Amino acid sequence: MSNPDLYGVLGRFEQASTLIEAVTALRRANYTHLEAFSPHPVKGLSQALGERSRWLTVAALVGALAAAAGTYWMAWYSAVIDYPYVVGGKPLHSWPPFLLLAFVLSILAAVLVALVGMLMGNRLPRPYHPVFNLAMFSRASDDSFFLLVRLEETPEEDVEHLRRRLRDLHALDIQEVPA
């Protein structure tokens, strides 16, 4: 049974390479609730955490296609059905101006879907996280790398084992994170 007053165990690492090694080792040991924090993007860290972002590109494509189809339909409906008005002898369904508007709005929709998907995938904005209460975590945006192991399913006796494991993985500071 896990301790309800404890959110997790946080380890501070000096280099990104040791953080990636620690993530890889803990995932091999079947720790699945891991969060990593770094002052800059670290190549290979998201792969080590087992995160994939394939759904975001598909969602952006679907949003772009839906916006293009909806825009084209709306332009066609307004020019052909709702307000048929012949200008300069052109046919009512003159598709070149419809395509330009559909293309521009499909790009806008793809960008908006990708932005919202990125925020949701990263769980942002996050005004509160239990690690914000630790003084050493202020270095997360400066010069240190942090690995948080959430204790959602970890038995209480494993906390000391986890601390030893983080120490073996070259964590400089290790602190328990209160809930």
TrEMBL record:
UniProt KW Glycosyltransferase keyword: no
Keyword flag Transmembrane helix: yes
Keywords, alphabetical: Membrane, Transmembrane, Transmembrane helix
Source organism phylogeny: Bacteria, Pseudomonadati, Pseudomonadota, Gammaproteobacteria, Oceanospirillales
Matching PANTHER family: LIPOPROTEIN-RELATED, QUINOL:CYTOCHROME C OXIDOREDUCTASE MEMBRANE PROTEIN
A Pfam family recorded for this sequence: ActD
Transmembrane segments: 55-75, 95-119
Protein name: DUF3341 domain-containing protein
